[in-house]
Amino acid sequence: KLAAEEAIEQGRLREGYRAAELVTETFWAAVHGVASLEINFAGNSWVPWRPMRRRTAAMIEAVLAGMCVERSAKRGAR
Q1: What are the start-end ranges of the H helices in the chain?
Q2: Per-residue pLDDT tens for 43-64?
C-alpha cells in the first residue's frame, strides 16, 4: 500500500488530494526537482546554493504544508 493511500484513509490530506497516485507523483516530482538541480548545478557560482539537506527539508515541508490538513484543525475536528 502506498503511504499516500494511508494518509488519505486517515484523513491527513486536504480534500483536493484524494488520488494516491497523483499525491505520490507530485511528491516524486518535487524530490526529483531538488535532485536534478543538485546534479546539474552544484558548484555553479550563479546561485549561492544552500546545503542540499536544508533545500530538501524546505521542499518537503512546503509540499506537506500544501497537501496536509492542518494539525490544529484536525485536532479540533475530533
Answers
A1: 3-9, 20-41, 52-67, 71-77
A2: 888 888 899 999 999 999 999 9
C-alpha cell recorded at residue 30:
518535487
- Residue type, position 20, single letter: A
Q: How many residues does the chain have?
A: 78
Q: Is 4 exposed, middle or buried (0-12, 13-18, 19+ CB in 10 A)?
A: buried
Closest CA to 30 of 5, 61, 68: 61
Ramachandran quadrant class, 14 (left: phi over 0; alpha: psi -120 to 50; beta: rest): beta
Amino acid of residue 16: G
pTM of the model: 0.77
Compute, in degrees rounded to 10, the torsion defined by CA atoms 50, 55, 61, 65: 90
